[in-house]
Automatic annotation (TrEMBL):
Residues 1-30 form the signal peptide. The keyword Disulfide bond does not apply. The lineage of its organism: Bacteria, Bacillati, Actinomycetota, Actinomycetes, Kineosporiales. This is Parallel beta helix pectate lyase-like protein. Keywords: Signal.
Length: 352
């Protein structure tokens, strides 16, 4: 269906009128009477109300510019697999910058595309997603925790078997906090309480700068057997410049870490054991976790698994320096063998 092109204020007013006329939160499809509509909003509009007004099949286009959105917790309708709800830039080459933070609960079949979100609320992440099925976050940039002292730039949590079938891919997440907390300032913190059917994919992201934590942490809390995520695939990510690059902890199950470029770890195990690792299995008690075919450099070991709970299925070794070029979101390996891993990976790995 062709997009409806309306003046900005009229578009948002019409969108909010739809919200008042349609009961929220009921799962629906286009066949249930929700035609696909496209609306446009700009930096002066209320993003919480705009998100709450969207219905299955709707697309919200955000004009270029910097938006002071505050920390928003919209109560969102649920999309469907055939009628997802999409938020993306009006001009693909000029993605908007949203300053504040976004917290979404049960965002079934939502798609956030190419959004740049800078955390600005005290101790709050740039993006926090609770539960949901089939949601996608792609092509974006998330940062700001270094200024807000949030535990993560991106947090993914939930319970009761959710989230399910989520995708977080081709994003850049950078500059985690550097607080006095002990090793707990992460770039991506995946802490949902797993159950049968839960899980998703974190792939092809660039994750940089987490000196007091991990690039990706899979696990929740610091207590023995604390519940953590099940069924997460971490694949083809470039994760560099941090304490550890991937951390799994406690009761995590059925997670897979493969094809990642993991480099320049700085956090020693203890005050007396100064060794470092690319991937750390901390007190893992769950089963079915698998790692393999990861390129680790700038660390003393590829995998630290003192309890022997993680199965190695594929190459895991410390390799030559990846000869990184670029900085931040543009970082990439210069060494040709390293290019087979991380965000530049095609899923085919060289023989060693």
């Amino acid at each position: 269906m062709p997009a409806r092109r309306r003046p900005l204020r009229h578009a948002l007013v019409a969108l909010l009128a739809v919200a008042a006329a349609v009961a929220p939160l009921a799962p629906a499809s286009a066949e249930d009477g929700y035609p696909a509509r496209t609306y446009t909003a700009g930096a002066g509009d209320d993003m919480r109300r705009a998100f709450e007004a969207l219905r299955p099949g709707d697309t919200l286009l955000l004009e270029p510019g910097t938006y002071d959105i505050g920390y928003i917790r919209p109560v969102v309708a649920r999309g469907t697999s055939r009628a997802p709800i999409t938020v993306k830039p009006q001009v693909w080459a000029s993605p908007p910058v949203l300053v504040g933070g976004i917290e979404l609960k049960s965002p079934d079949f939502w798609s956030l595309q190419r959004l740049r979100v800078k955390a600005a609320a005290d101790r709050a992440p740039a993006l926090h997603v609770h539960g949901g099925t089939g949601w996608r976050v792609t092509g974006g940039e998330f940062w700001g925790a270094r200024d807000t002292e949030a535990y993560a730039n991106v947090a993914i949590d939930g319970g009761g078997g959710y989230p399910r079938a989520f995708t977080f891919s081709q994003n850049c997440v950078h500059d985690a906090a550097t607080t006095q907390r002990a090793k707990t300032d992460h770039n991506i913190y995946v802490k949902f309480h797993g159950a049968a059917g839960s899980g998703g994919v974190i792939s092809q992201n660039t994750i940089v700068g987490h000196p007091n934590g991990a690039g990706i942490k899979l696990g929740d809390g610091g207590e023995t057997n604390a519940p953590g995520p099940w069924g997460v695939t971490v694949s083809g990510n470039t994760i560099v410049d941090g304490g550890r690059q991937v951390l799994m902890s406690h009761d995590v199950r059925g997670n897979t870490v493969t094809g990642n470029l993991l480099g320049r770890s700085r956090e020693p195990f203890t005050a007396t054991d100064r060794r470092t690792t690319g991937l750390y299995a901390l007190m893992v008690g769950g089963t079915g976790n698998v790692v393999g075919n990861n390129y680790v450099f700038g660390a003393d070991m590829a995998l630290r698994d003192p309890y022997g709970k993680v199965r190695v299925a594929g190459d895991m070794a410390v390799r030559p320096d990846a000869q990184l070029t670029g900085r931040g979101c543009s970082v990439q390996p210069g060494y040709w063998k390293a290019r087979y891993y991380g965000r530049t990976s095609t899923g085919v790995y060289p023989r060693w």
